C-alpha cells in the first residue's frame, strides 16, 4: 500500500437547466396575464392576492409586476397563463380579451413565435356598493328595486334589496352581456349614524301563517330602525325612521355606516331611481372601534417587481380594510390563510425621564381615541383555531 499526501483543489461550477435559466432571466416569457379594475382602490387586488396564495395558483408564475392600473403575471407557456386566467374568472367576474404579438418567424420551416397577452377586466362593482339597476335590467331580474346593495362578489354579483331582503344573483356571463352602470355610492361615501331603536319586522310570505313567518334570511334580518346622523347628534333633534337588513348585528346605542341619499350627487339618469327609492338612508354595516393593538395574525404577500421610475403604490389602507372584512366575516376567512404572528421581542426599559414622557403622550393619545370611539364596540377577534403556524426566523438562530 502506497500513500502520498498532496493538495487538491476542487472548483464547483453550478449550472442550471434551460428551463431554470429562462425563468430567472428578465423579460423572457411567452405569455402575460394582465389584471385590471377601473376603481380608485385596490381592495380587490389585495383579496385576490390572498386567494392566489391559498390555492397556490402562482406556482407557474415567472414574475409579477405591479402597475398603477393593476397587476401583470408573466408565464413561460400559454397553457399556464390560460389556467391562471381561468382561476381568476372563478373568483371574480372578469371579461377576458386575448391578443398575440409576432416576435419572429422562419419562412423556410413555417415556424412562428408569438407572445400571448390575456387582459382580464374585473367587475367594477365591489362589496357594499350601492348599485343602480336600470329598467331593462330590472325586467330581467324579476322586477328588482332600482337601487340595490352589493352583498357578495364571487363568480357572480350578488345583490340584495335592503327593504325586502330579496336577493338577486347575476352570473358573470350575464353581467358582461349587459353591464350595470357605475355604482351610485361606494365606501368613500359612507356616513356615520347612531342607532336609537330597533324593531324586527316579519317578512311577508304568501300562504304562510303569521306565527311561522321569518324575520330574516341567514345573517340578515329586516328591522325598522330609528337613527340619527352622528354629526348632528347633540346639535338637533333630527331622527330618521328607516328599514334595513342589518337588524341582527345592531342594537340601540351602536354606530352604523350607511349612505345618506339626501347628500349624494347623481347623474340625471339616476335621479329618478333615487327619488323613487322609499328611504333616504341605506345602512351598510356596523362600525367598530379602531384596533389599538397589533393583531395576533398576519397575511402574506406575493413578491412583485416594480418598474424603474414608477411611483410607489401604497396599499396599506386597502390591506387594513381587507383585514377588517376578514375579522367581521367568518365565511370570508375560509378562502384565506391567516398566519399566527411571532411574539415581538422584549425591548429594553428606557430611562425614567423618557419613560415618563412616553407614558404621558401615550395616555393623552389613548384618551383622544377613547373620546372618538365612545359608544363603539370592540372589533371581533379571529379564533386561534383558524390560524396557521408560519415560519419565523429569530435573530439568535441567524447568528
Radius of gyration: 28 Å
Which whole number gives the mean pLDDT?
82
* CA distance, first residue to last residue: 46 Å
The percentage of residues in β strands lies in 25-35%
Largest sheet data: 6 strands, mixed
Q: What is the number of helices?
A: 9
Oligomer: single chain
Q: Structural class, from secondary structure content?
A: alpha+beta
Percentage of residues in helical conformation: 10-25%
H and E string: HEHEEHEEEHEEEHEEEEEEHEEEHEHEH
Q: What order do the helices and strands come in, and which of them pair?
A:
Layout: H1 18-24, E1 31-36, H2 43-55, E2 61-66, E3 70-75, H3 78-91, E4 94-106, E5 111-122, E6 130-132, H4 135-140, E7 147-153, E8 156-160, E9 167-171, H5 172-177, E10 191-200, E11 216-217, E12 220-221, E13 223-229, E14 240-244, E15 255-260, H6 268-276, E16 281-286, E17 297-298, E18 305-306, H7 316-328, E19 338-340, H8 352-372, E20 387-389, H9 395-398
Parallel strand pairs: 1-5, 2-18, 19-20
Antiparallel strand pairs: 1-3, 2-3, 4-5, 6-7, 7-8, 8-9, 10-13, 10-15, 11-12, 13-14, 15-16, 17-19
